[in-house]
Amino acid sequence: MKNVTLPDGEQLPRIGFGTWRIGGDSASDASQDTRSLDALRSALELGYTLFDTAEMYAHGHAEELLGQAIREAGIERESLFVTSKVMQSHLQHEQVLQACERSLQRLGMDHLDLYLIHWPSLSTPLEETFRALNRLVRDGKVRHLGVSNFDLSWLKQAQALCETPLVTNQVPCSLSDRTYFENGMLDYCQANGILLTAYSPIDQGRLRVNPALQEIAQAHQATPYQIALSWLVGQPGVITIPMSFDPQHQKENLEAVEIVLSPGEIEQLTLSR
Questions:
Q1: Which residues contact 102 (CB under 8 A, 6 or more apart)?
Q2: Which is catalytic among the residues 57, 115, 180, 225?
Q3: How far is CA 135 from CA 30, 49, 98, 139, 268, in A?
Q4: How far apart are CA 105 and CA 124, in angstroms?
Q5: Is the dihedral of CA 144, 145, 148, 151 positive or negative?
Q6: Cα gap 152→242, rounded to integer Å
Q7: Structural domains in the chain?
C-alpha cells in the first residue's frame, strides 16, 4: 500500500521528501539555491506530495525555497502535506507561536499540515510547549502535531499533553540502524496509532550493501537502496522521508513503495546486518 491512514482518516504517503541540505546545512547558503530549487521542482514533478522541512534547515531558507518551488509549480496547496519543526531553543510558549508564524511566512502558507518539536528540551517544560502547540491547532495554523527525536518516556508525556491525536515521532531509522525498532518505540507507536517517521532511511547514501540486500535487489531488478526503503515502509505504521538532489534517485526512492517483498525476503533482510 502506498499510503497510511491518519487518525482522522486522511491518507498520507509512505514515502515523502526531506529537505535537510536544501538551501544549505544549518546556515543559509545562497550558492546552493539553483541546485536546491531544481531538486524541489523535480520532486514535485515526480509526484511527491509529502514534504518535510524545519526552521533549523538552512536557518529557515529551506522553508523559503520549498514555498517558492510550490508556488512556481502552480500546485494546489490542498494536494500537499507539508511538515515543519520548531527548534529546541524556541519551545517556550510565545516562542513557539512566533516560530510557527515565521515558518508560515517563509513558506508563504496559511497553515502547516504537521508541526513537530524537533528535539525535546530539558530547560522548557513540555506542558508549556504543548500549551502553545494546542493553541496553534485550535487557531487553524496547524492541522496535526507530532514530535521528533523523542525517546519513549518523552513520547508518552507528549501524547498525554496533546489535545488531538499525536501523529508521529520522527527518528533516525534504516535497515542498518534499528535502534527505534528494538527499544520498544515501534511497538508502542503501532499499539497507539502513532506513525514512526524514519529519517536517514538509507544512512544519507552510505547504506552498507550486504549480500542479502544485493541478492534481493537483483531479483526485483531494483537498487539496493530501493529494497532497503521497501523493507522499511513495509513495517506497519512506518513512513520515511529520503532526500536526494538527483532526479533519478528521487524517482527510484518514490517507486520503492511499489516493490512487494515476499515474507521470506523480509525475514532475510531482517536477519541480515
A1: 55, 60
A2: 57
A3: 34, 26, 12, 6, 46
A4: 25
A5: negative
A6: 24
A7: 12-204+236-243 (3.20.20.100)
E strands, the chain, are 3-5, 11-13, 17-18, 50-52, 81-86, 112-117, 142-148, 168-172, 195-199, 238-240
The question of whether 188 is a catalytic residue gets the answer no
In tens digits, the chain (273 residues) has pLDDT values of 789 999 889 999 999 999 999 999 999 999 999 999 999 999 999 999 999 999 999 999 999 999 999 999 999 999 999 999 999 999 999 999 999 999 999 999 999 999 999 999 999 999 999 999 999 999 999 999 999 999 999 999 999 999 999 999 999 999 999 999 999 999 999 999 999 999 999 988 888 888 999 999 999 999 999 999 999 999 999 999 999 999 999 999 999 999 999 999 999 999 987
